[in-house]
Design brief:
The chain starts with 7 loop residues before the first helix and ends in a 7-residue tail after the last helix. The protein is about 45% helix and about 15% strand. With about 290 residues, the protein is of the alpha/beta class. The strands form two sheets. Strands 1-2-3-4-5-7-9-10 form an eight-stranded parallel beta barrel, surrounded by ten helices. The chain has a two-stranded parallel ribbon with strand order 6-8.
Length: about 290
């Protein structure tokens, strides 16, 4: 049987070969994990399941991580198990020890020199286990939060410098680069102004490294397509998936008659199905099969 647990480099090669973007979905709960893998298997598409360090208060990495790895091994499609926004080298090492096949070091708030030095260390750590490495250059104004915070206009954004990206990739040997080109983590209150030339120029200056879009939730269908044509190969998506689950739970409660018992298991099932359908729509769009609703 073909190995379904793949590393970041391998799944990015699939994206390049098919000229698509791979959906990368945070799964900080069993319900989210089942929703994402269920969607990927129904569509027969490769997928990245990831856990961000900021989700540690929800559930420890040491608890959900082994479950993610085992689920990926049993999946019917290629799956990369990825650490998203790892802020410390110790946390990256924890993920590698658990069997994660991709890690992201987020040094975007540090100086270029510190980011470069720590990313080199992360790459050396990952090489020991054969995991792939993603890093970030530029800034979307603030780090991702665990609670789907509202995305507002942020004048502290620093767009990725393509020439700097070329040197950074050459010096670190990373497998994917998260670029700042106008997206923001969380829910958008205004339409994002995306500069796709940043993606194109980063690709040109780095020898076509796969570019990662962070803050992918809430971007329009046409803008997703333009980003993919420009060279985005990994799209991080969580906030709107999480929102879909919350809305489904609220609608379930609204349908109950007065005095009717409320069962947590029923709420979970409603939320899981809603997340799955939202993920399927996103995955179809990223694979250029359909447009997100």
């Amino acid at each position: 049987m073909k190995r379904m647990l793949v590393n970041l480099k391998e799944i990015m090669e699939i994206a390049e070969e098919k000229d698509i973007a791979i959906g990368s979905f945070n799964t900080p709960s069993l319900e989210a994990l089942e929703a994402v893998l269920g969607a990927a298997e129904e569509l027969k598409l490769p997928v990245i399941i990831q856990f961000a360090q900021c989700h540690e208060p929800w559930i420890p990495l040491t608890t959900i991580g082994p479950i993610m790895v085992e689920a990926a091994k049993r999946a019917l499609v290629p799956v990369c198990v990825h650490l998203d926004h790892g802020e410390t080298l110790d946390y990256l090492q924890c993920a590698l020890d658990l069997g994660f096949t991709g890690i992201m070091y987020d040094g975007s708030t540090l100086s270029y020199e510190e980011n470069l030095a720590n990313t080199k260390k992360a790459a050396a750590m990952a090489a020991v286990t054969g995991a792939g490495v993603e890093a970030e250059l530029g800034s979307m104004g603030r780090r991702e939060s665990g609670d789907g915070e509202v995305g507002t206009q942020d004048d502290t954004k620093i767009y990725t410098d393509p020439d700097q990206a070329g040197a950074f990739v050459a010096d670190t040997g990373i497998n994917a680069l998260a670029c700042s080109f106008g997206t923001t983590h969380g829910i958008y209150l205004t339409k994002p102004r995306l500069d796709f030339s940043v993606v194109e120029n980063v690709r040109n200056s780095t020898g076509n490294i796969p570019v990662v879009m962070h803050g992918g939730s809430g971007v329009s269908g046409p803008d997703y397509q333009r980003a993919i044509r420009a060279g985005v190969r990994k799209i991080n998506y969580f906030t709107y998936m999480d929102k879909a689950g919350g809305q489904a739970a609220a609608h379930y409660l609204e349908r109950l008659s007065d005095g009717e018992p409320i069962f947590y298991s029923s709420i979970v099932m409603e939320a899981r199905e809603a997340m799955k359908q939202n993920v399927k729509a996103a995955m179809k769009l990223f694979a250029q099969m359909d447009e997100i609703q």
